Amino acid sequence: MTGWSFLRDVDRQFETAAAHVPMQDGLSEKIRVCNATYVVRFGVRLRGRMETFSGWRAVHSTHVSPAKGGIRFSPHADQDEVEALAALMTYKCALMGLPFGGSKGALKIDPMSWSREELEKITRRFTQELARHNFLAPSQNVPAPDMGTNELTMVWMTDEYRRWSPSDINAFACVTGKPLAAGGIEGRIEATGRGVQFAIREFFRHDDDVARAGLTPGPAGKRVIVQGLGNVGYHAAKFLSEEDGCKIIAVIEHDGGLYAEQGIEIEDLKRYLQDNHSAKGYPGADVIDDGASLLMRDCDILVPAATEGVINSENAKRIQAKLIAEAANGPTTFEADRILRSRGVAVLPDLYVNAGGVIVSYFEWVKNLTHIPFGLMERRHHETSHRMLAHSLEAMTGMQFPSENARAFLSGAREIDLVRSGLDEMMRGAYREIADARWTNGEELDMRTAAYTIALRRITEAYNAIGL
């Protein structure tokens, strides 16, 4: 899209919502603009020569601290994108009631062009630069994985930060998205995809919204198209198909798409992609060279789970999905959103649908600060109490406790159970808040604007509370 600006789109949506939120003069502009953006250029000696890399870390807001947001490695990254994503993190955290400001980082690099050992050197140098300028610390700025980065990237960053600040007892909380052995939390890898599933489930609990979208009750049997089978798209597709009875009829990848009206088996496709690094030749579906054309295929639910701006003014009029669940950040442009609304397409906004990752990152951050795993203190107590209750019921009724329910009821909750429960609760609560906020001053707002207004009210309250 020639001339399109992701940051300008985020600002336009902010301005639309800000018109519905009372603020003192000038505060709107203070909230909208990015607080600070650190531009870094550093050198690493690789392959016998000095390589120079460019990166950014933007802090959009510190109305609460620390600032939170992922770090991506991408050859297409730029400052405009980083500042747009940082703003979205501010609004997303405020919407979900998390005690974080918004931040985002990127390194302009193609991770596929470097070996694991080389990526480690590059990441450690980037970490040194961030820590030196106070853009990395448990109390100030907490990154997480994003496009092109993963658990291992976070391990390198944590280790380098611990070397930089050996006296910081909370050093493991300097990043989230770590593996369990390095202070992570169960359920973090699946978190964003699980949040997409919970968001769609909650949508189908609201009969009026379902009817307005022209859908039948319940997610079971719904035909779903997923754009991007990275971490988010894979887990969303897996959970929706295996647990909710949805049928994944199409998957769009960077080198084409796959279509199968009878449904695609996601685990089988994932193995194929891992072995072949391409969707081409997959025997379980028809290969479509122009993968983007599948965005316009008939389906019930469209899940854009890759990059920003994939639904735009050029294709929005041809989208046939009844419900769009924005699993990626900014997948729908401002103009496309207006077109979709005019056509009656239901859109669950990214501020809400994509929040699972930062919610579980919050759980991980709290775990690292408290230095104790979730559920450790109460699991055996709950298990003993449940067993006593079960035995009492058996004694009173003369019947044996149903074996199909016994294991789940009698065992105390594990960390993964608590993480999923907490995530589900926050996704349910946020949807209800958005639904309530849609009616503002006698005017019905769309879900995206309602989500933004909730976020802006909370940010405004925070600024007012500290006297700004």
How large is the share of residues in beta strands? 15-25%
What's the CATH topology name of the domain at 191-353?
Answer: Rossmann fold
Portion of residues in helices? 40-55%
CATH A-level architecture of the domain at 191-353: 3-Layer(aba) Sandwich
pLDDT averaged residue by residue: 93
C-alpha-based Rg, rounded = 23 Å
* Anisotropy-based shape: globular
Q: What's the level 1 CATH class of the domain at 191-353? A: Alpha Beta
Distance between the termini: 39 Å
CATH homologous superfamily annotation of the domain at 191-353 = NAD(P)-binding Rossmann-like Domain
**Widest sheet: strand ordering:** 10-9-8-7-11-12-13
Number of strands: 15
The major beta sheet can be summarized as: 7 strands, mixed
Observed structural traits:
15 strands; 16 helices; alpha/beta; Rossmann fold; about 475 residues; 6-stranded mixed sheet; about 45% helix; 7-stranded mixed sheet
Structure summarized in a few sentences:
The protein is an alpha/beta fold and 468 residues long.
List the helices and strands and how they pair.
Blueprint: H1 6-18, H2 27-32, E1 36-46, E2 49-59, E3 67-68, E4 71-74, H3 79-95, E5 101-108, H4 116-132, E6 141-142, H5 151-164, H6 191-203, H7 207-212, E7 223-227, H8 231-243, E8 247-253, E9 256-259, H9 266-276, E10 286-288, E11 301-304, E12 323-325, H10 334-342, E13 346-348, H11 350-353, H12 356-370, H13 379-397, H14 403-410, H15 415-437, E14 439-440, E15 443-444, H16 447-465
Parallel strand pairs: 3-5, 3-6, 4-5, 7-8, 7-11, 11-12, 12-13
Antiparallel strand pairs: 1-2, 2-5, 8-9, 9-10, 14-15
Helix pairs in contact: 1-3, 1-16, 3-16, 4-5, 6-8, 6-12, 6-15, 12-15, 15-16
